[in-house]
Amino acid sequence: MSTDYQQARLSLGARLRELRAEVTGRDLASRLGWPQSKVSKLETGRQTATGADLEAWAAATGHPEAVEDLKARLQGLESRSRSWRRQLRAGHRPVQDALTVEYRRSSYLRAWEGAMVVGILQTADYARHTFTRYAELHQSIPDVEDAVRARMRRQEILYEPGRSFDIVMWEAALHARVCPPPVMAAQLDRLAGVVGLDTVNLGIVPFNAPLAIPPANGFWIYDERLVIAEDWHAELWLDDADTVATYGRVWSTLRDAAVHGAAAHRLIARARAYLDHA
């Protein structure tokens, strides 16, 4: 979780504590019918309030006029951390559509992914298995086919002049069995075909490459204006200059460990051969 995000959550908690100044935490919990631990977690930034929580808090502390300010603070939090629980209420398709908007707004896109093939290079079958697994994990609406179609349509951007995709993946992504072997084989063939595409620079970090930093969570950098990083609980949309610059340094450090061109093609071919003989 970003430091800026946590600082904003702490600030919201401090504001809630101010509103509760004339009421004890125990009394407020009793009025709201909450465990006292929830009051404590909200005030100390260990739990994020919902809009309904904020309305109830303002009313119970005698400050209904504070609701607008509290919700504005919450909206600021949610613009940075977009929980999967909330995003996936309507399924995966709307999430894909929102990402397509950011792709189209950008001309230079950089990505790091250590665990799976990036969405912009996925085959339909690979994407189908990925969406299915995530829908099961998050118990969300299983709109898998709509999500696959949205992702495939976005791939048209790869062939538009004026855009550049600089993608770095760990070799582990070539071996992770997130789908059946025949689907993975077709996916590796797709990656091999991408090497040499004039809008895509695909780098693979070999297993035995010296690493200056650990290969952590995946992320995209959209020009110099936005980073979208994925975690298990949420996507982080980060647009302050210092954070974007930090992710840029991370990406450059990982790229320095990658191989490209024919060397990347050999790693893909080796994974394909291993799959054939597994």
Mean pLDDT score, rounded?
92
CATH architecture of the largest domain: 2-Layer Sandwich
Main sheet attributes: strand count, strand direction, barrel closure: 7 strands, mixed
Cα separation of the termini = 38 Å
Name the poorly predicted regions.
none
Structural class: alpha/beta
Order of helices and strands, N to C?
Answer: HHHHHEHHEHHEHEEEEHH
CATH fold descriptor of the largest domain: Endonuclease, Chain A
Shape assignment: elongated
Strand content: 5-15%
Radius of gyration: 22 Å
Helix content: 40-55%
The total count of helices amounts to 12
Number of strands: 7
CATH class of the largest domain: Alpha Beta
Work out the count of structural domains: 2
| Side-by-side strand order of the widest sheet | 1-7-6-5-2-3-4
Would you kindly provide a written description of the structure presented here, covering whatever features stand out?
The chain is of the alpha/beta class and 278 residues long. It has two domains: 3-83, lambda repressor-like DNA-binding domains (434 Repressor (Amino-terminal Domain)); 91-277, Endonuclease, Chain A (2-Layer Sandwich), CATH 3.30.870. It is built from twelve helices and seven strands. It has a seven-stranded mixed β-sheet with strand order 1-7-6-5-2-3-4. Strand 6 (226-230) and strand 7 (234-238) form a beta hairpin. Helix 1 (3-19) runs antiparallel to helix 5 (67-80), helix 2 (25-32) crosses helix 3 and helix 7 (92-104) packs parallel to helix 9 (144-154). It is elongated, with a radius of gyration of 22 Å. The two termini are 38 Å apart. 28% of the residues are buried. The model has no long low-confidence stretch (mean pLDDT 92).
